[in-house]
Amino acid sequence: MDLLDFFAIITFLMKPIVKLLLEGGSLSTAQMAEVLNLSVAEVEQQLADLKAQNLLLGFRPVLNLTREDSGVVRAVIEVRITPERGGGFNRLAERISRFDEVESCFLMSGGYDLLVFVNGASLQKVAAFVSEKLSTLEGVLSTATHFMLRSYKEQGFLLEVKTEEAVRLKVAP
Q: Predicted confidence band at 107 (pLDDT cuts at 50, 70, 90)?
C-alpha cells in the first residue's frame, strides 16, 4: 500500500455516513438523515454509492446466541497452507471462503496462514467439514480446530453483562 492508498482509506473512514454506520447501530435512513443533517434521499444515495463501490456489503445484526439454544456449533480453525507461484495465498483462501460452512476467512501473520471461522449443526458436522473438505485440499498443510464454548463479547457488544458490572472499570493507583 502506498501513501496515496493510505490517505484514500483515511479519507473514506472520515465520511460521516460511514462513521455513523459503524457506530450508529441499527438506525433507519430517516434517523441517519436527521443525525447527519441531510435529506433521506441524500442518505439513500450515499448508501447506494457505497454499495456500488463494493464498500458496504450489507447490514448484520449482532445476536446474543447465549440467550437461545440455537444448536449452532462455532469453531475457529488455524490453517497452514503452501503459497502458490503467481498467486500467493489468494487462490486457496478464496476457494476455502466459498464453502457454505465458512463464515469468515482471514490471512494472518504468525504461526499459521489463515484463520477460518466455521459454523455447523454439530461438533461432528464441523469435524467432518475439516477432515473431509478442508484438510484434503491440495496446498493445505495442517489445521488446528478450536471450538467456541461461550461468547463474552461479539462485534463490540458485551453479552450477558449484569447491570452492576456494566459500569466502567475502576482505576487503581
A: very high
Q: Distance from CA of residue 7 to its chain's centroid? A: 24
Residues 42 and 74 in one domain: no
Residue 89: which domain range? 65-150
For residue 82, give the C-alpha cell. 503452501
Residue 67 dihedral angles phi and psi, to the nearest 5°? -90, -5
In a domain, 132, yes or no: yes
Residues near 157 by beta carbon (within 8 Å), at least 6 away in sequence: 62, 64
CA distance 144 to 80: 9
| Choice between 57 and 41, residue whose per-residue pLDDT is larger | 41
Rounded to whole angstroms, the Cα distance separating 122 from 90 reads: 29
Q: How many CA atoms lie within 13 A of 3 on its CB side?
A: 0
Question: Of 68, 70, 83, 123, which Cα lies nearest the Cα of 101?
Answer: 123
pTM confidence score: 0.65
| Separation between Cα atoms, residue 128 and residue 105, nearest integer Å | 18
For 26, which DSSP code? S
> Is there a single domain that holds both residue 99 and residue 48?
no
Neighbouring C-beta atoms of residue 148, cutoff 10 Å: 14
The answer to whether residues 119 and 104 touch, using CB atoms and an 8 Å cutoff, is no
